[in-house]
């Protein structure tokens, strides 16, 4: 659906300009005539089939072998979704590379299998066929950058948009097969027309943006939402062609539908409590999804879920489709959220760094959040918080290996958890409790007997500040975050004494870490003398309630000492499930191997004690 000018920005002047240029600067752009003619031809064929069927039934009473499709009808509704069915809901989220490269597996095997026993909602990210950097979302951001650049024409932007259109039309062509019936041909024709329409509307919108030379938060949100819509259109068509009626559910305006407050009030509410803000969207999400199911169709939901107060990308980050899937799961009271990736689940360590790493059958939500923060790409932290509040379990599964069990992230109950659950969801939760107990988590606190996983965060710089006597570290510690934020630096770990303060820093922006630290040093040196150690890594040993494991810290550091690995900073988080320490980058792999084998008790490649000792010839 074409955009209106009131979606483009916060200021009325900008809105009027965008609306004007959309209508006047470039005129009304229509679908290509070939696309329109193809669609009309398909409609005529379908109408002829329908008339033939009616005539046959009147004269002979026989059933027609051709289904009487109309221009608004889909294929026969096999595996219909009944919204009031007692079957539990499962929400599945597929990443961009899965949609781009493994669509056949999704629509031929995975989704049909789950439809046999569950009500299913599918959330899709924007497509990516090669590397994530060359995916649809990055192309859209590139097109937006071109539209606000200093170039004198839209040529560069048009090239990006043309590439985007060709990529998705090629994906649509891939769905075609020999012997397609008229209904399937009509679905494919409609898909092509919808792709062209979406992309050409995008072109008009960016042309207006280029003319104005200004981008608001809502402008960026509107542009990014195109990627998820194109992806969902393709997935819905792929299922419908296979006699599984599906329809895109566009959540792009869900925040506006649920909110009556001003943008400023929304922004304040989100900053105060993002989980509560998102929970207030659940009724609007449920209403829109069930409206699709009322027609017996599988809801294919856009992973982009609306214009947030400060833009979705800035507010949530690139993991917004995970958060959208979680929002759908709590809105539908789903028994489980499944996130499908191209790996078997969460491992005890990065398999590229520790060759003996194993897939974890279960972890808790707190463990998953810590793993995400300290280096493992598991799940968006806000996603885990939202699921934990609502007691919805999350399962990570592999599209390339769909029969594998994957990893279940168990939502340990929080004080704010919802006390009411549907019978189907309660049964799934009971099954999860049995599964967790079978994997070493005991009692309500789900305390595991040994650490669960180890992860590493590279590209760390360690800055030590020794107080000049004017202020103790505790006094100037409050000023540190502002200094770091100005220079696009993130504080990952800190440790302080009466005279000194240690900071483990990483870069938050596109700037080089060394350059950012160098620029921040003059501000930090106002508090005392500084020393800088570059090329460091943070290693985190994570396990639920690990603070209560007597002697675990001694076991970790004794193992590292036996391998002659020096430690430069130690920190245990208030979450009680994480012990982190800083080592030189050159020691990272050895440190992970040592802890993985000796502390987590997972056998390594070599079991001999001397295999971990590094001689002086390696320095």
TrEMBL record:
E.C. no: 2.7.2.4
GO BP: 'de novo' L-methionine biosynthetic process; homoserine biosynthetic process; lysine biosynthetic process via diaminopimelate; threonine biosynthetic process
Pfam families per the UniProt record, alphabetical: AA_kinase (PF00696), ACT_9 (PF22468)
UniProt GO molecular function: aspartate kinase activity; ATP binding
Pathway assigned to this chain's UniProt record: Mycotoxin biosynthesis
ACT domain span: 541-619
PROSITE patterns found in the cross-reference section: ACT (PS51671)
Record-level GO cellular component terms: cytosol
Keywords annotated in UniProt: ATP-binding, Kinase, Nucleotide-binding, Transferase
Alphabetized InterPro entries for the sequence: AceGlu_kinase-like_sf, ACT-like_dom_sf, ACT_Aspartokinase, ACT_dom, Asp/Glu/Uridylate_kinase, Asp_kinase
Catalytically driven reaction(s): L-aspartate + ATP = 4-phospho-L-aspartate + ADP
UniProt similarity note: Belongs to the aspartokinase family.
Descriptive protein name: Aspartate kinase FUB3
Organism: Exophiala xenobiotica
């Amino acid at each position: 659906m074409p955009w209106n000018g009131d979606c483009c920005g916060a200021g009325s002047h900008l809105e009027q300009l965008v609306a004007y240029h959309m209508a006047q600067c470039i005129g009304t752009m229509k679908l290509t005539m070939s696309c329109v003619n193809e669609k009309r031809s398909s409609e005529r064929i379908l109408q002829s089939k329908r008339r033939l069927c009616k005539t046959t039934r009147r004269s002979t009473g026989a059933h027609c072998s051709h289904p009487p499709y109309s221009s608004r009808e889909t294929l026969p509704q096999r595996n219909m979704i009944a919204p009031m069915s007692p079957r539990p809901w499962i929400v599945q989220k597929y990443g961009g590379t899965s949609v781009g490269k493994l669509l056949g597996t999704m629509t031929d095997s995975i989704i049909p299998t789950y439809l046999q026993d569950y009500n299913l909602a599918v959330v899709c990210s924007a497509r990516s066929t090669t590397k994530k950097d060359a995916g649809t979302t990055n192309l859209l951001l590139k097109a937006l950058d071109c539209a606000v650049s200093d170039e004198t024409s839209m040529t560069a932007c048009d090239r990006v948009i043309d590439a985007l259109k060709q990529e998705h039309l090629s994906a649509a062509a891939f769905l075609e097969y020999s012997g397609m019936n008229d209904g399937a041909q009509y679905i494919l024709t409609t898909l092509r027309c919808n792709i062209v329409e979406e992309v050409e509307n995008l072109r008009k919108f960016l042309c207006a943006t280029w003319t104005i030379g200004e981008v608001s938060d809502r402008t960026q949100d509107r542009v990014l939402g195109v990627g998820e819509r194109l992806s969902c259109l393709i997935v819905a068509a792929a299922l419908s062609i296979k006699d599984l009626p599906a329809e895109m559910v566009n959540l792009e305006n869900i925040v506006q539908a649920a909110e009556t407050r001003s943008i400023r009030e929304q922004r304040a509410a989100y900053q105060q409590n993002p989980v509560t803000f998102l929970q207030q969207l659940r009724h609007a999400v449920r209403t829109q999804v069930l409206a699709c199911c009322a027609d017996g169709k599988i809801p294919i939901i856009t992973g982009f879920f609306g214009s947030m107060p400060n833009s979705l990308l800035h507010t949530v980050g690139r993991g917004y489709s995970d958060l959208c899937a979680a929002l759908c799961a709590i809105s539908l009271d789903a028994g489980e959220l499944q996130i499908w990736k191209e790996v078997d689940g969460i491992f005890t360590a990065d398999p590229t760094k520790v060759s003996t790493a194993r897939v974890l059958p279960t972890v808790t939500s707190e463990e998953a959040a810590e793993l995400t923060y300290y280096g493992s790409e598991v799940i968006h932290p806000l996603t885990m918080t939202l699921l934990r509040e609502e007691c919805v379990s999350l399962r990570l599964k592999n599209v390339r290996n769909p029969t594998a069990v994957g990893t279940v992230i168990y939502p340990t109950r929080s004080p704010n958890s919802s006390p009411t659950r549907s019978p189907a969801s309660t049964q799934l939760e009971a099954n999860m409790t049995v599964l967790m107990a079978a994997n070493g988590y005991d009692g309500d606190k789900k305390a595991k007997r040994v650490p669960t996983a180890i992860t590493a965060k590279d590209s760390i710089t360690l800055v030590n500040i020794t107080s000049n006597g004017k202020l103790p570290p505790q006094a100037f510690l409050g000023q540190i975050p502002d200094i770091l934020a100005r220079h696009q630096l993130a504080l990952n770990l800190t440790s302080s004494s009466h005279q000194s303060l240690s900071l483990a820093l990483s870069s938050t922006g596109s700037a080089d870490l060394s350059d950012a630290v160098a620029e921040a040093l003059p501000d930090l040196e106002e508090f005392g003398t500084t020393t800088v150690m570059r090329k460091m890594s943070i290693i985190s040993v994570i396990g639920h309630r690990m603070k209560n494991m007597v002697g675990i810290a001694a076991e970790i550091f004794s193992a590292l000492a036996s391998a002659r690995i020096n430690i430069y900073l130690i920190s245990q988080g208030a979450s009680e499930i994480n012990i982190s320490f800083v080592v030189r980058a050159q020691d990272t792999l050895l440190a992970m191997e040592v802890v993985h084998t000796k502390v987590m008790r997972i056998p390594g490649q070599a079991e001999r004690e001397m295999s971990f000792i590094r001689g002086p010839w390696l320095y």
